[in-house]
Design a protein that fits this description.
Blueprint: E1 7-13, H1 18-33, E2 42-49, H2 52-60, E3 62-64, H3 73-79, E4 80-82, E5 87-90, H4 92-95, E6 98-102, E7 116-121, H5 130-143, E8 144-152, E9 165-170, E10 173-178
Parallel strand pairs: 1-2, 1-7, 2-6, 7-8
Antiparallel strand pairs: 3-5, 4-5, 8-10, 9-10
């Protein structure tokens, strides 16, 4: 979050939206603990998927009992409302932060350069060819604000070009931070990759 401008933008490449709403819950909890009124902040959590049907499913924010295994009852009652038989729906105050949109990581336009604080992309790059990874990560870096972060799954980004990104070791993980660019310079992601498939997702 950027305290001076009261804005935060997070992009997440996902399946079915659970992770995006989890981020929204986390932000709300941080706001409560820090006595922040998030209603006055410009927060956008964007979830994307190649499949439009997956985005529509995620946008609905409706989950069955299985999705709440291990979730404390107070969290479920605070952020979800009963919706039909054995289903729960995300409450509207939380949903105002979240939207979903279909996106092809190789072919479609990304958010404006330097507009994103955090990108989470887990269990996606493992299904791409090496040239496709280079192209996509270059586009990620271009979308990030200076000092914005990219988080990937463990081992998904080993041995790959990290154009415009600096790796940082954290306990149990590695994150990638966009380098601050000198005035007048821009990141130019590669454009020669054509294939996204390395395998078939489970």
């Amino acid at each position: 979050a950027r305290q001076g401008t009261h804005s935060v933008r997070v992009e997440r490449w996902l399946l079915y939206g659970r992770g995006v709403y989890s981020l929204a819950i986390l932000l709300d909890q941080i706001g409560t603990e820090c006595s922040l009124d998030l209603a006055g902040w410009r927060i956008t959590l964007l979830g994307t998927d190649l499949n439009p049907a997956a985005c529509r499913h995620a946008q609905a924010g409706v989950y069955g009992k299985w999705s709440f295994r291990g979730v404390p009852a107070e969290i479920q009652s605070r952020y979800f409302l009963p919706h039909g038989a054995d289903q729960w729906r995300v409450k509207e105050p939380l949903r105002r932060f979240v939207r979903f949109h279909p996106l092809n990581l190789l072919q479609d336009a990304y958010p404006a350069a330097g507009s994103v604080d955090l990108i989470l992309c887990r269990n996606v790059l493992i299904y791409m060819t090496d040239p496709a990874i280079v192209q996509v990560v270059g586009k990620f870096a271009q979308s990030l604000r200076p000092d914005g972060y990219l988080l990937t799954g463990h081992g998904e980004f080993q041995g790959q070009s990290r154009q415009g990104l600096i790796s940082q070791l954290l306990p149990g993980s590695t994150v990638y931070r966009r380098q601050t660019q000198p005035s007048g310079t821009t990141l130019t992601p590669p454009t020669d990759a054509r294939s996204i498939n390395r395998g078939t997702p489970p």
